[in-house]
Amino acid sequence: MTENRVGDPPDALLRAEAINKNFGAVVALQDVSLQIPRGEITGLVGDNGAGKSTLIKIISGVLTPDSGVIEFERKAANFTSPAEAREQGIETVYQDLALAGNLAVWANVYLGRELTVGPKILHILDKRAMLSKTGEMLERFIRNVPPIAEPVELLSGGQRQVVAIARAGAWGSKLILMDEPTAALGVAETKAVEDVIFGLKRQGLTILVISHNLDQIFRLTDGVWVMRRGRVIGYRQTARTHPDEIVSMITGAAASAGAGA
Ligand SMILES: Nc1ncnc2c1ncn2[C@@H]1O[C@H](COP(=O)(O)OP(=O)(O)OP(=O)(O)O)[C@@H](O)[C@H]1O
Ligand SMILES: [Mg+2]
Fold it and tell me: What is the pLDDT of residues 146-185, one digit of tens each?
């Protein structure tokens, strides 16, 4: 839709431009512009209330901005529902994930996309096909695939998150948004989830991940955007920055020192 502009990364999958969002008197996002490079893992960090979740919800169609533009693959993409975003290949994984606990892993993966045998009108589920294809699908991203015939509620929190992320990566997704994907997990489970995230990247997907854990941001990401109080402070390539710099961007220490405040 727009031409390449000076300062854009060469291959941005998604661009947000001059996004504003208020909740009553609360200014959640103020003139937020950023780009998400294609094929990379990008971090989004900032203190509580900085506006990170609000931005992800706008990208994924859960919220609509008061003003500003989202461009996805160079086309205007102000989605008005999560379903619309999903159709275009944008999937979101939340901390409180949306898996149905009583259903088996394979049934969760195929939820809303069930395979059937025989005449469509009878809606006879092709369980065998879904079972075997779920295995193949998850193996693309996961080394230790959890038991796919078991109900999700029998899996550990980490295994569930792994399934949720792998499901998000299936079905032709292009961009995966993750809001604190490991906030509730222990060390080993966090590692398993990070492995899946790398698996998504290896398959060519683009990832935006919110995390309060800077060690994780430095392990996972190629670049990181910092937000503070509803504004974008800046972007850094992970290999060319240091946690101290990111912390000072998050807290505003650098800015206030510079301003003599
Ligand atoms: N639905 C809402 N109604 C009113 N205010 C909201 C709503 N959602 C977010 N806010 C406010 O907007 C601001 C940004 O919130 P947001 O949830 O985006 O922050 P965040 O960076 O995700 O923070 P955290 O790290 O704590 O998750 C905060 O002041 C928050 O209180
Ligand atoms: Mg949040």
Answer: 899 999 999 888 888 888 888 888 887 999 999 999 988 8
Whether 183 lines ligand 1, by a CB cut-off of 6 Å, is no
- pTM reported for the whole predicted model: 0.90
- Which one of the ligands is nearest to 52 CA? 1
Is the torsion defined by CA of 65, 70, 76, 80 positive or negative? negative
Neighbours of 111 (CB within 10 A): 13
Give the closest ligand to the alpha carbon of residue 54: 1
Which residues fall inside 5 Å of ion ligand 2, going by CB?
Answer: 53
In angstroms, the CA 144 to CA 192 distance is 9
- Select 12-258's CATH number: 3.20.20.80, 3.30.565.10, 3.40.1160.10, 3.40.50.300: 3.40.50.300
Which amino acid is located at 138 in the chain? L
> Which of the residue ranges 90-94, 134-138, 140-144, 216-220 would you say has the lowest mean pLDDT?
140-144
> Domain extents for the chain?
12-258
Contact 23 CB / ligand 1 (< 6 Å): yes
